[in-house]
Amino acid sequence: MAISSRLDTARVLATVLLPTLAKGVIVRRPGVMAAAGKLQSDQRAVETMRKLRDRYGPEPIRLRVTGRSIAVLVDPTDVHRLLDESPEPFALATKEKKAALQHFQPHGVLISEGAERERLREINERALRPENVPVEAIVRDEADLLTRHVMSTGELTWDAFSQTWWRIVRRIVLGDGARGDDQLTDDLLALRQNANWAFLHPKQRGLRERFQRRLDDHLARAEKGSLAAQPGDLSGQVPHWLFAFDAAGIVTMRALAIGARGTHGILESARLWPTTPVILRESTIATRWHGTWLPEDTLFVVFTPFFHRDPDRLPHADRYAPEIWDRPLDPAIVPFSGGPGVCPGRDLVLATGAAVLDTLGEHLSFPALTAPLPATLNHFAIRLRTTPTGTRVA
Ligand code: HEM
Known about the structure:
One of its GO terms (biological process) is sterol metabolic process. By secondary structure, the protein is of the alpha+beta class. It has helices at residues 6-23, 30-39, 41-56, 76-84, 95-101, 114-127, 135-153, 158-174, 182-195, 205-221, 238-257, 262-272, 304-308, 346-363, and strands at 2-3, 61-63, 70-72, 90-91, 155-157, 278-283, 287-289, 292-294, 299-303, 382-385, 392-393. It has a single domain (2-393), classed as CATH 1.10.630.10. The protein has 14 helices and eleven strands. A hairpin with a 6-residue loop joins strand 10 (382-385) and strand 11 (392-393). Helix 11 (238-257) crosses helix 12. The relative contact order is 0.17. The site of protoporphyrin IX containing FE (HEM) has 26 residues, from helix 6, helix 11 and helix 14.
């Protein structure tokens, strides 16, 4: 059994887990992201993980933390097993996730269990198929407006991009009637800011009820050509969809910064800068790993930036390498998770993101960041110049 020394536990907490928490697990905090970008904090995190693997070998490494059995994975085949054997015996609904997500999506599939989880999973899988919505037409409409704006200002900023992005998202999820409802997504943002604090922040019942009422009004229209027209009780699921589309916007903006195109471009952006940097599972029984047993209720941690950017194993660690998605993939490259708990929104994200890249790419070109790509890329600060001088990431 690999049990980390107190010093190594402190290192993992200080350079891997706390910076991830500080950036904001549910919604990114701009100030911390700016600092993380300057310090390239993910670089240190990946180095800590490499040292840990060198020191303790491939077994899951237990941290010395009182009150919780925590095991950090370092072996790609263990990552595959953990995700493949979810939700039993490795539950997606860990205590930490429940505490965070109860703030804005208490009925979401991610923190559900047993038969209820199966029912909700099916609703999500059925509803989130890209062919349910005219993604390309919606994107084209909105991206054309953005293109004109960029042509007049000479640059694409995160603020301009994200306004367009949220119009696209509200139309895809709720229909044209929600296009201009900034209040809806602003209220969700406030709830997500509370969720960053998980157990520590009181629940704002009034705000949550206001958000849910607004959302239910949109859903009641069941607008044709939007996800809201899909069958099943969607009201408890849509908060997660809106929340997760934020990550998809970040991934798309970063894809623009590296000159990526198509669905592989979106996948690469999500590999290089995973928006779910920590995938968590909680064991419901004692489980055996490399010959040793870990107790029931162990929290398993997969720190994806380590597996996605590990220079010891991946020759393409720090460059844009869309070709890897055509070949059998390393089992620990999992920006959308894997196994039965894989992101059911994946194809919709790829369709939406790739449509944005293609539409903007028709009229605009941005000089791309080149290898070695930064370990941390603060999306808030990305400014893409359309003039010849080059991409500036402040
Ligand atoms: C770049 C964008 C996205 C990425 C990288 C991403 C990634 C992920 C990951 C890693 C998980 C697993 C989380 C865990 O195991 O705790 C997940 C779950 C999930 N995602 Fe996404 N996601 C994205 C966007 C979306 C979108 C836009 C939707 C919906 C419209 C969505 C719907 C879901 C749902 C419903 C789950 C829960 C699945 C379950 O519990 O079985 N995701 N996603």
